[in-house]
Amino acid sequence: MSDKFIPHYFRDIDDTLNDREPYQQQKWTRTAIKAKENVELRQKFPPFVVPAAFYKIVHVNKYTSMEELHLLVNHVQQCTQFTIDTESERSDGQLALIQIQTIPSQLPSLLILIELQHLPFDNPPTYIKIKEFFSLVFRSGNQLYSWGDMDKELEPIQDSHLFNWPTTASLIDIQPYFSDWYEWALAHCESCRPNHHRQHGGVNYDNVTTQNYSSFKCVCHEQSPYRPGEKWSLQKALIYAAHMFIDKSCTVNNWAAGLTSNNSTLSTGRRKKMINYAIYDCFSTTYFIRPVLEYWT
């Protein structure tokens, strides 16, 4: 891809300054490579889009009304499955945002953005209602799906009294399962495998294991770019499995700065981009739950 299509504000990979320490230069180079790759992928693949009618975004901060919290609690009471993710503040690495997507029996789903640096600590009734929300999400019997170790990601606030820890809900990290599923799916591709949905020569291809079916190569999906068992990034997983793109340019950001007009100094455009990034990390994880865990092709 020609460099003229790379936005001017992206760092030059070959830029080396004499006053940078080696570790700073390595970090600079990694960031530049990721930024350029993100732009290239955006131009190559269509975006992953969820219709706006399928979901509603709910911000939980000190400006959230008690009425909104009542509606949120009532909705969560009817759900047993959720997708969860987190974001950390770029300046100090502190956990700043928890994203929770409800997976209800009927749409719309709720995308709940809990802004940890902007909770109503000085408003006991509202704060208690938020704790009730967390207790319902993390209650026994619930399943919380993630792309990454959520036990580790939530560790910084496990003593914050927002919820009881360890949780009695099931925390299910999809990421470690993706590699094996993708290799299996390539060997059982129903779009391009020979004699689709047929038995041939006494062989039922639906019952053949991946190991015995290794001679078949899927041609509509690329082979894994990772080593066997290596963990995939969510962006690459969506591109390789579904040929769709999610923007990762907002990963490192000022997540503690607030995401609503009431509590943020960030521009409207920047907040909108950050919110879109936050909710699509959840959507993408939710997209993979059943295919990966139930071995769909």
Short note summarizing the structure:
The chain is of the alpha/beta class.
SSE order, as H and E?
HEHEEEHEHEHEEHH
Distance between the termini: 32 Å
Radius of gyration: 22 Å
Count of beta strands: 8
Strand order of the largest sheet: 1-4-3-2-5-6
CATH architecture of the domain at 52-174 and 254-282: 2-Layer Sandwich
Total of DSSP H or I helical runs spanning 4+ residues: 7
CATH class of the domain at 52-174 and 254-282: Alpha Beta
The CATH superfamily of the domain at 52-174 and 254-282 appears as Ribonuclease H-like superfamily/Ribonuclease H
* Share of residues in strands: 5-15%
Main sheet summary: 6 strands, mixed
Q: In terms of per-residue confidence, which ranges show pLDDT below 50 for 5 or more consecutive residues?
A: 1-9, 195-214
Backbone structural class: alpha/beta
- The overall pLDDT average reads 86
Overall outline: globular
Helix content: 25-40%
The CATH topology of the domain at 52-174 and 254-282 comes to Nucleotidyltransferase, domain 5
